[in-house]
Amino acid sequence: MHVSKMTTVNSMDEMSKIQDKSLVRSQAYIDGNWVDAGSGKTFDVTDPATLHKIGSVADMDASDVQKAVDAASRAFESWKTTTAKQRAALLRKWYDLIIANSKDLGRLMTLESGKPIGEATGEVAYGASFIEWFGEEAKRAYGDVVPSPIGGSRVVVMKQPVGVVGIITPYNFPNAMITRKVGAALAAGCTVVVRPAHETPFSALALCELAERAGIPPGVINIVTCSGENTPAVGKELTTNPTIRKVSFTGSTAVGKLLMGQAAGTMKKVSMELGGNAPFIVFEDADLQRAAEQLIGCKFRNSGQTCVCANRVYVHESVYDEFVKRFTDLIQQKMHVGHGLAEGVNFGPMITERGMHKIEDQLKRAVDSGARIVLGGNRPKGLESIGGHFFEPTVLVDVSDDVPMTCEETFGPLCPIYKFASEEEVVKRANSVDVGLAGYFFSRDIGRVFRVAEVLEVGMVGVNTGAISTEVAPFGGVKESGVGREGSHYGIDEYLNIKYLNISL
Ligand code: NAD
């Protein structure tokens, strides 16, 4: 592992290098206006790599949310009557503007999330792909004509937008978790009130500035920023306000359960994209080098802070030692840790202190019960002067099956590698957790590919690849990883109600 030589960074100076200053918004956006919180309060946003303040934004509360919901409700009356073609044209303009501004959006994202600039601009393109995709999908939200069992009658099925949608997103994908929801909602004819993560509100506000420039009408998109302190009250309003007809949330399973419970009172439609604990299985017939290379991205992308990150790596005992060596060699060659804006860096800080404590605790508990660290395990030397939440890519062996590192999502750069002896055994261990978002395995046996893919209890399977996210495929999980799907043609259905007409001629 290499450590960046750029050991002092002034985050404010880096913010000032954003070329289009009007992308850096500190007010929230309600009914087509940039507004302060009703209370006048603001909260600070910091660069997780340096812990420097990079700005502050409006700290809204439940009364501001009510204003946003009212605006979204008024806008829904006209937005739902626009044609799919008109909505598609606006979404296309928004997409073009996001792509045209990807450099600034990437820099902004790196500064508020710590994500290396290459990954950040990659996320901007990925995020934009949902706006493009759903703009096109808007035109294909067809209904059905069903053959009626009764003579002289017709059965017609139509799809209609659900109404105002409340959206809550996490910090790890400050752009794409918003576009994946907002793109589908707007395409369907819904209007939205979005509460972005308090760690990363600037990316959401910049997206909104571009939506305004694209000509998305007032009230169709509303962004309500708030601090961690105001989050429970804002979340409560978004999940209990009767005007909101759907809640779409991405975040942890614990918060998802709370929000789903709150939404039950008014029987809202819900989409819950929650936590994972992905198994990554390397069978004895796998291409080991390819598996090791894919695991680098699958485990360490965004410093391990993605819901589909490999969490538990299982390697067949006959290739175990060779795989561990190949993988640790690759980490040493390829990983460059440092500030996300520094040249060559592909591994940044943890976004939150909370996340840092979680991995340190998981590591300690694994080691206390017999695990061995074969690489990493510390805060990296040489970056002390930068000041942020950095932690080395870490590989462990001899980790037991009952420690938190195995049973829970890590959401950080810890990589336990376990040994297994048979297909049956590894599938059982892979399925032994409460969540089921993504799973990965490497094998060149076509029979095994189908057998294992069919029995893994997850919503998404990567076979001989560690990269599965794309706008054209349904993203989502089973078990406690949530309900609903995002992206793909299935994604728009989450924002549509089905109405059926029985017409007697
Ligand atoms: P989190 O659940 O703590 O927070 C997610 C969001 O919810 C944040 O914006 C947070 O401020 C907000 N929130 C927290 N409490 C709330 C409340 N009472 N009411 C309303 N909002 C509330 O999760 P996190 O640690 O920020 O994010 C990481 C989690 O998100 C991981 O579990 C990860 O797997 C999951 N995630 C899932 C997907 C997916 O598509 N399935 C994608 C990204 C992240």
UniProtKB/TrEMBL annotation:
Give a yes or no for keyword Lipoprotein in this entry: no
- One Gene Ontology term from the biological process aspect of the record: gamma-aminobutyric acid catabolic process
- Please give the SUPFAM superfamilies that the UniProt record associates with this protein: ALDH-like
User: Pathway membership of this protein?
Assistant: Amino-acid degradation; 4-aminobutanoate degradation
Keyword line: Oxidoreductase
Reaction(s) catalyzed by this protein? Answer: succinate semialdehyde + NAD(+) + H2O = succinate + NADH + 2 H(+); succinate semialdehyde + NADP(+) + H2O = succinate + NADPH + 2 H(+)
**GO molecular function per UniProt:** succinate-semialdehyde dehydrogenase (NAD+) activity
Residues covered by the Aldehyde dehydrogenase domain: 34-500
EC number, as in UniProt: 1.2.1.16
Task: Report the active site residues.
Answer: E273
Q: Which InterPro entries match?
A: Ald_DH/histidinol_DH, Ald_DH_C, Ald_DH_CS_CYS, Ald_DH_CS_GLU, Ald_DH_N, Aldehyde_DH_dom, Aldehyde_DH_Superfamily, Succ_semiAld_DH
Q: Which family does it belong to?
A: Belongs to the aldehyde dehydrogenase family.
Q: Which NCBIfam families match?
A: SSADH
The family database entries (PANTHER family) matched by this protein are listed as: SUCCINATE-SEMIALDEHYDE DEHYDROGENASE, MITOCHONDRIAL
- Its name, as the record gives it, is Succinate-semialdehyde dehydrogenase
